[in-house]
Amino acid sequence: MKLGRFLLLRRATQLGVLGLFLAGPLAGLWIVKGNLNFSYTLAFLPLADPYLLAQSLLARHVPETKALAGAAIVLALYILVGGRAYCSWVCPMNIVTDAAAWLHAKLGIRGGASFSRALRYWILALTLVLALATGTLAWELVNPVSMLHRGLIFGMGAAWAIVAAVFLFDLFVASRGWCGHVCPVGAFYSLLGRIAVLRVSAVRRAHCDDCMDCYAVCPEPQVITPALKGAPKGLGPVILAANCTNCARCIDVCQKEVFAFGTRFDDARRQATKLAEAKEVS
Question: How far apart are CA 43 and CA 240, in angstroms?
Fold first, then answer.
């Protein structure tokens, strides 16, 4: 598979976000203070993780106005660019799990455990119930995403063990198992994906030659079929599935240039155009 422009752009974005957080502690350049849970950008813009805020509210912690404002900004951003864009463009664990998936394929490891993709939603619910029952942010004690990001900024400590466990889980137990089946953070952001504006679309699906390259690289391959092969059923080409991460790997690898970025409204627009043309003909 070719190393595409969107993969390089995602890595640049992930490392760039991390670099902004590290610039303060390492170089005294405090562009961003904090971590992915809560941060200040340029000493005035608050950004807060809405999933963490939900846990805090259930734990009966009263958030500051800045946290509420920061969470609202982040919610608005991911409703615009796609909820699970967080997973593929920001989350530092994505680099770890992508590396495990690459090595899994290189080593030719076959088989592995099978988990329902609904498992992540049950775990998400469990983390919220734990916050309500214990009055603490229980999940954050073991959240690999938070631990890795905080560890890279302030020192890893025992976080290495958690990160290594996720890597080995994806490598030997279930390829892409963490992000695709277990992680409640991705499950939370997928809920925003149900109404997200920016979407990948199989705009030239008639040119598909069934090479299956897009399925091979997609971390959530089940989201592709309705858009790519749904024409006979009257389904539009826009990938509307909430678990599409907008990683754009399908765009990168498709030799026929079937896929492109668009919006969730493109299907409705195409349908309206067809109806208008049909009326003109009649």
Answer: 37
Q: How far apart are CA 31 and CA 111, in angstroms?
A: 46
Q: Give the distance, in angstroms, between the CA of residue 25 and the centroid of all CA atoms in the same chain.
A: 27
Q: How many helices (H) and strands (E) does the chain have?
A: 14, 5
In this predicted model, what pLDDT tens digit does every residue of 37-55 receive, in sequence order? 999 999 899 999 999 999 9
Q: The whole model's pTM is what?
A: 0.91
Q: Which of 243, 263, 269, 265 is nearest to 200 (CA)?
A: 263
* Residue 68 CA neighbour count, 13 Å, CB half: 6
Calpha distance 225→215 (Å, rounded): 9
- The answer to whether residues 69 and 157 touch, using CB atoms and an 8 Å cutoff, is no
Phi, psi angles (nearest 5°) of residue 269: -65, -45
| CA separation for the pair 167, 161 (Å, rounded) | 10
How much is the CA Rg of the chain, to the nearest whole Å?
20
Mean pLDDT value across the chain:
92
